[in-house]
Design brief:
Structural class of chain A: alpha+beta
Order of helices and strands of chain A: EEHEEHHHEEEE
Number of helices of chain A: 4
Mean pLDDT of chain A: 97
Shape of chain A: elongated
Strand content of chain A: 35-45%
Radius of gyration of chain A: 16 Å
Largest interface: A-C, 34 and 32 residues
Oligomer: homotrimer
Low-confidence stretches of chain A: none
Chain lengths: 138, 138, 138
């Protein structure tokens, strides 16, 4: 069996909450004591996304403000005309950032840069529980 | 052989046409009756992209309007000075959204959220025929 | 062993330098003389990204200008209050474009469109040396 499916749950505050999930991914991967592998991270749901950033408080604010410029929460969305849940902007942001990211495992370590972390972005306008899948192909 | 290559063709209207391709992907994957696998979707071409969204008419309009704000079709692009095909904005949009997405197959089912669908976005300014590849690693 | 890890180094000028890395990827892949495979490209670092575009001088300028509109280098970033390295905009751009992309290998060829090339985008505000990983799953 050359593929392992792992997953974990993260509770978020929504509202473009940005959470460092690097340690969770390491926990899923490192216990298998593999040397070289492809690690695929994907998130369920249409108002959240995964990407990589330098995880520090300043940049988190910058990224939240950037998303507010790109898909403002203050304008009207057709999505909200139907569902009236006021999270149209969250759907647009998630579609742009994307729901999956790949990282190489090399000599037993995730091949991230010194300052590079994997993050979950939750754009929904309320608290959510998110299910992240980590697939390890080796 | 732990990898299967499948593909399908979608005819689009271009002009930021957004098409739900979830069923096509399921057709490629489910016939192999696998339990756990990595499913990688990629699209050929430099004016189209794949991502995941809640596929409903309001959000489709929202996403089209967001792309119009992010890379307006009304401004001038250097790309069009050379090719004169007027689709510079389409290239920029495609580069931002991205050409590939991964989904986990778990217990025989694509691990999408309840409202999450895989979509093809065709940003070109004319009708196109698009070739989508589905790779299944198991 | 169904997975091969390759990598290469690219020296960039930073400042949203956009470099065609398709030939480098082909060099990593084609020497193995495989028929069908999944090719996963990922980049280390939090101020660079990978995506696919039609690589021509006009579009390169268009994409650089689009990034300048989406995450302007002229506004203030909280990230720079801490590090004072003036590259907050580079981090935001990288998070949006993304650090990984997948391409199918079919009948021994990378399944790119006629005009579609894989590019490295370096958003940092200085020259950098970038490490790109190419994983081949077959």
């Amino acid at each position: 069996m050359p593929i392992i499916n792992e997953n974990f749950i993260i509770n978020t505050n929504g509202n473009t909450d940005i959470i460092n999930i690097t340690k969770h991914i390491q926990n899923c991967v490192y216990k298998h004591e593999l040397k070289d592998a492809l690690v695929c991270i994907s998130i369920q749901g249409s108002t959240s996304a995964v990407t990589t950033i330098e995880y520090e408080p300043g940049l988190i604010k910058d990224l939240q403000q950037a998303m507010e410029r790109i898909a403002p929460s203050s304008i009207e969305y057709h999505h909200d005309e139907i569902w009236h849940d006021g999270n149209g902007y969250a759907h647009v942001r998630a579609a742009l950032v994307g729901s999956s990211v790949n990282i190489a495992l090399k000599d037993g370590l995730l091949n991230l840069g010194t300052w590079q972390q994997v993050v979950l972005m939750d754009f929904d306008n309320k608290e959510r529980s998110r299910n992240i899948t980590v697939q390890i192909v080796y």
